[in-house]
Hints:
With 107 residues, the protein is mostly helical.
Amino acid sequence: MTTFEKIYEVVKTIPKGKVMSYGQVAILAGNPRWARVVGYALHVNPQPGIIPCHRVVMKDGSICKGFAFGGADAQRQLLESEGVEFVDDMRVDMEKYRAVNPQAEQL
């Protein structure tokens, strides 16, 4: 399995209405140093309707200004349609919406 495939498998596990940080995804994909690689992988997501890249945000809950599939507004709309609330225009409430995974609880 390639690095990108590992990342996509992790992202597919993020439940609707939850988010993970790039760092969480990196750890769960096998290497905590892959946070930037996660971004590269999501930018070329081969299955946007199946691999929910909109559920990956910065560790502080910020959404990506350059979201590959329509910009930050599109990412925000997708998250809000799943019930995710924001603490301001660009940040998800990570305390409330972070997907919990035993391997990444420290993040």
